[in-house]
Amino acid sequence: MTLTQLEYLLAVDTYRHFATAAEKCFVTQPTLSMQIQKLEEELGVQVFDRSRVPVRPTELGIEIILQARVTVAEFKKIEELVKVQRDGIGGELRIGVIPTLAPYLIPLFITDFIQKYPQVHVVIQELVTSSIVEKLRLELLDVGLLVTPLNDKTMVEVPLFYEAFVGYLHPSHALAKQKTITAEEIDPADLWLLNEGHCFRSQVLQLCNRAKSTRNVHLDYESGSLETLKRIVETQSGMTLLPELSVQELSEEKKAMVRPFAEPQPLREVSLVVHRSFLKKRMIEALRDEIVGHLPAGLRERNPVRVVKIK
Predict the structure, then answer these.
(1) d(Cα 263, Cα 277) in Å, to the nearest integer?
(2) Chain-centre distance of CA 70, in angstroms?
(3) Res. 109 pLDDT band, cuts 50 70 90
(4) pLDDT above 80 for 155
(5) What is the per-residue pLDDT across 284-308, written as a single tens digit (0 to 9) for each?
(6) CA 81/CA 33 separation, integer angstroms
(7) Where do the HTH lysR-type domain residues begin and end (predicted)?
(8) How far is the C-alpha of 196 from the C-alpha of 211, rounded, in Å?
(9) pLDDT of 121 strictly over 70
(10) pLDDT tens-digit profile of 26-48?
(11) 8 Å CB contact between 220 and 231
């Protein structure tokens, strides 16, 4: 059993296609297939079920692949230690960020991070939580910026800050007359929501103690963008709930449409998430420090009294 064979094994698991895996490993398909077959013969088990399209690991193969990921990662950590000592922090850093966080958090720190670490090439993908977690598992991303807890034992979560929910109300809305709002006062028929698949949507419904939206209007519009929800509230009617960072840069006129929740404010936990066998430790630590250092003071110092979980 060789490290190269294990790397080929992981490539096939990641791409579920022998030809694509060979291309990513910069070898011919016959070479990759032969090495995996030799590994299976040495182990005396079949790791992949080749009768299925796309190819899938067998039941025992899943366990073997999990251990192979740990083994390969531990070996690469040795290479990483030497490289950081020799060259400093550098290389590619692939970050996955959820859409309700990316437009508001990334601009706070990314310019200073790149200037501080010029040898780091940052690649950012805006994805929903489930896609980020899957890409972390397959090592297609190095780190995720997500709302937690995920309750996934294969992931390590490092909380960064706690962000408040706020209401964004049309001026004609009944609650607009109040300085603060409560979840119990929100009528789900007035509430504009994100599409299915966004963790922020599930948190909003949970906060309002609703399993689903029950709008009773002539227009039924669920968006994938918080900015679209803002525009709908501004031009139509009703209200939406937003994360705190998304209202930081509003004009004074639009800030007048924002209503905080009464204390204790509902919060969402934003964390840096990595796979349990993650690499690029120094680079990810630098990312964490840079994010926290650029947060508004109120987010850095907040005590998490009422965190809304994800269901």
Answers:
(1) 39
(2) 22
(3) very high
(4) yes
(5) 999 999 999 999 988 877 778 778 8
(6) 32
(7) 1-58
(8) 12
(9) yes
(10) 999 999 999 999 999 999 999 99
(11) no
End residue of a domain, out of 68, 84, 100: 84
98 in Cβ contact with 128 (< 8 Å): yes
Q: How far apart are CA 33 and CA 39, in angstroms?
A: 10
Predicted local distance difference test score (pLDDT) of residue 213: 53
Q: How many CA atoms lie within 13 A of 28 on its CB side?
A: 3
| 32 within some domain | yes
Q: Is the pTM of this model over 0.85?
A: no
Three-state DSSP class for residue 142: coil
- Least trusted range by pLDDT, from 18-22, 38-42, 74-78, 251-255: 74-78
**Cis upstream peptide for 264 (omega within 30°):** yes
Is the distance from CB of 110 to CB of 79 less than 8 angstroms?
no
Give the CA dihedral 30, 35, 37, 40, nearest 10 degrees.
-160
Helix 29-43, helix 3-15: angle, nearest 10: 110
Structure tokens at 250: 């509003």
Domain range spanning residue 65?
3-84
The position carrying tokens 């294969």 is 154
Phi, psi of 249, deg, nearest 5: -100, 15
Give the end of a domain, one of 50, 84, 118. Answer: 84
Residues 150 and 167 in one domain: no
CB atoms within 10 A of CB 305: 11
- DSSP-derived pairing of the beta strands 155-169 and 239-243: antiparallel
Say how many C-beta atoms besides its own lie within 10 A of residue 276's C-beta. 14
Same domain, yes or no, for 44 and 99? no
